[in-house]
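input
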Amino acid sequence: MVPTQTADPVAALLAWHLAVGCDETLADAPLNRLQAPVPAAPADTPAAPRPSRIAAAPPPPPPAPIALDTGPPTELAASAGTLEALSNAIRSYTGCGLKATAINTVIADGNPHAALMVLGEAPGADEDRQGKPFVGASGQLLDRMLAAIGRDRSQTYISNVVFWRPPGNRQPTPQELQLCLPFVLRHIELVRPKVLMIAGGVAVKAILQRAEGIMKLRGRWFTHQLTDGSSIPVLPTYHPAFLLRSPAQKRDAWRDLIEIQVKLEELDPPRP
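output
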């Protein structure tokens, strides 16, 4: 329908409404149907004015802040004289915010008396649920890597440089690494392995304090100094999770394993 041309502006507006389908008048004021109806007032009581819009609900109170121990963990780690005491110290420590979002504190697995210690980066979702390091897909690959040089978890001690899963499996921040580092260094002191294998660039940088990436550091021997002046040979290598994404790099990882096997035979020869 085409509105009839007219000089009367009111008539022209009504004609336009008819043309677009507005052919009924339901009320002389807008009605907010999202608002609960107001009970009708008695006949002798004047009606209260209706609000023009819904009143905004008050905002929810902010969540209570999590109480964190912001003191340095150095003294707490140094006071641990045994692995059990260190484990208790790590579990009681609240200075790292990752603990607030994690399910479990993931410390170690394997044999603490083993000649080989493996340090990874941080727990993933499977590790967080089970409370053990390297139990997901990357852990299964690590088990196969160890088996390739004749070892298993009963002959290896496995841990990470961060004890709580970062949300979304993101990389730990430098601050998170720094908060965990005193515990990690004390961990190495107490285990005193013959050889330390560090898996992944994040863990390598945290322990060796090197700026180079893992591509340049892997396959090269370094030393980690203990507080008594002795040292542990350290070999950086690729993290199993990286090898799952980049299987072409498994050849280099295999070379690293052979290097570790030779070093272990040199420093911890099999007993007759």
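quick obs: The domain at 74-266 is CATH 3.40.470.10 (Uracil-DNA Glycosylase, subunit E).
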